[in-house]
Amino acid sequence: MPKQKRKIKNNKIENLSQTILNILRKDHSQAFNYKQIAAKLQLDDPSSRNQIVKKLKDLQGKGTIQEIERGKYILTPSQNYYTGRVDIAGRGQGYIIVEDLEEDIYVKSQNLNKALNGDIVEVYVFKRKKGGKTEGEVTKILERKRTEFVGTIQVQENFAFVDVTDYKMYTDIFVPKNKINGAKNGEKVLVAMEDWPEKADSPFGSVIKVLGMPGEHNTEIHSILAQYGLPYEFPKEVEDYANNIDTSIQASEIKKRRDMRDVLTFTIDPKDAKDFDDALSFEKLDNGNYEIGIHIADVSHYLTPGNELDDEAYERATSVYLVDRVVPMLPEILSNNACSLRPNEEKYTFSAVFEINPKAEIVKQWFGRTVTYSDARFAYEEAQHIIENPTEEIHTIPSNISITDTEYTVKPEIAKAILEMDRLAKILRTKRMRAGAISFDKVEVKFILDEKSNPEGVYFKESKDANKLIEEFMLLANRSVAEFIGKQEPKKTFVYRVHDEPDDEKIAALENIIKRFGYKLNTKDRHTTATSMNQLLKDVHGKKEQNLIDTLTIRSMSKAMYTTHNIGHYGLAFDYYTHFTSPIRRYPDVMVHRLLQHYLDNGKSAKEEEYEEKCGHSSDMENLATNAERDSIKYMQVKYMQDHQDQDFLGVISGVTEWGIYIEIISNKCEGMVRLQDLQDDRYEFDKDEYAVIGQRTNKIYRLGDEVYVKVKNADLVKKHLDFTMLGHGKDF
């Protein structure tokens, strides 16, 4: 026997017990005999087979394996198998997150057995080492999280490899020459993983789309969408179907609805909005109360369950708002035309109409289908101008904030309606805050783009009274619809938007960080936590650390989600809450409209399982869209900083790790990193308890929250990453 083969055989025999256990563990529901084990080990000589038989008997004697029929063995059933989700950490190792276990299961890279980030797997847990972490091995991949990846293709003579952009993907993908789909070396592509042969280091795949050269604007935006499996165009059959819908307003349909076309109605939206899915109506009643209508585009009138348009909207589940474009949930004929409540047009709507007294108390409510006519359209800035100048007899909108860029006068009845609704909204908001709602008014970063989508400037968007006016009435509609169904007996299946209480550990971590800035929380109970959190958000407003603390506070919260199981909404302090007000851009709102109408028509309770599955899908798609939106902002920030490499920037240290210091630029909120190895003046050590790095020789400290000056060292558009050069502490300049 050749020396090399003998060596391999000896290794297999030496670790025979462990090797047999690994084979039985990999498929613990299947029984194996000695011949099958020998075949898997590629051992075919009588001596090796005898040793396998002997080891099987030894393991059976120890109770590790069982003989379930003559000569056939399985692993002794144990409680050591769990199902969980893979979370890949650094260097290809990972953790399995199991719902019922407090501690995640650590898995070395060699024991992942081809499991990738996000996969649902079966994991076998080894006996825990004394004082060590729980460790295990993936025995079965139950469900792949994703099979399509974005990466850069390296084309060789007879094959290609795709280096995947996602840092949690620890392997490249092998692509045979006949499956590269015309991709050229160095291009970004979308690749489908098709197979991962037993003995192959890399999975095999095929290129399904060429995205373009890295660094080019459209390539990078399309890559972001492709990475999250989000489409950027509609299939032709969906567009054709939408374009053939009759969107005219019919007298026969009006008869089935409450006609509110004569009631004063208007919209308030962002200046650049194209889809107006909500409008407000206002009427003063003879008894001194007000009738206020929240009118929402009746998207469910045009979407029939099960047709291609509805299926496409469900699959997308949400519109995606990237920095330079919107990827809509519905084709333009609906999103910007038929369902958009544009001024001076009649529209089918679904409405929540309230009689409200001057103290902002709800006297009566009504829900149902309506037909409305919008008398005017306002941008937030225009409505804000009216609110900020309440005593003007004639409300004139100046040209610099006017939608039309020309000065104009607002009809007195509309100005009065806006002012009165602002007053009522402020009362509703105060009540909400007293009940324990948390006021997240996080600053939004916006870019001024040229005609080629290059960032020319950065500005911050803050929520003002006009935004809060709309917000309060939308919250009122959402809460009231949820309450109306949620309190009915017998209980009915419904789609709720829920928000759990924050995790104690996350709140403790937040407390630890904010005390570095001189702030504290009172976490005695639910109400004091919310009150002190509001105080914190108020105290940091306008300070250098505002964005950092706003972000950390939001991260300490649970994630809001859709479900049929109502647990209330912690952040809003509501016992019942849903999404009813944005069906053009959110599919759950379409489901809510359908269910509400079904129950108004005295229909029986819908199937809970069916709606719970749809809720799960909607929550998942919302998370993907949020990640894509975040990536597009990061990309645009890097692009912006690329053009300002010669500038010194004042920033605040937003994070400290053992490999580097994260700094957020105060003037534009762009975040980048100074690597510890790039700090040339000393050797810095990370101090976890101090949230700081400390120079070993000079004792110089860079601590979380410190102001520092930095310069751009490297702006990587493809990785969406900024490297800074440290210039020194802010106080030293």
UniProtKB/TrEMBL annotation:
**GO molecular function annotations of the record:** exoribonuclease II activity; RNA binding
Primary localization: cytoplasm
Keywords, A to Z?
Answer: Cytoplasm, Exonuclease, Hydrolase, Nuclease, RNA-binding
Q: What class of enzyme is it?
A: hydrolase
What's the Enzyme Commission number for this chain?
3.1.13.1
Output the GO biological process annotations, alphabetical, semicolon-separated: mRNA catabolic process
Q: Which InterPro entries match?
A: CSD, CSD2, NA-bd_OB-fold, RNase_B_OB_dom, RNase_II/R, RNase_II/R_CS, RNase_II/RNase_R, RNase_R
Reaction equations catalysed: Exonucleolytic cleavage in the 3'- to 5'-direction to yield nucleoside 5'-phosphates
**Record carries keyword Cell membrane:** no
NCBIfam families reported for this sequence: 3_prime_RNase, RNase_R
What is the name of this protein?
A: Ribonuclease R
Q: Which organism is it from?
A: Aequorivita antarctica
What is the gene name? rnr
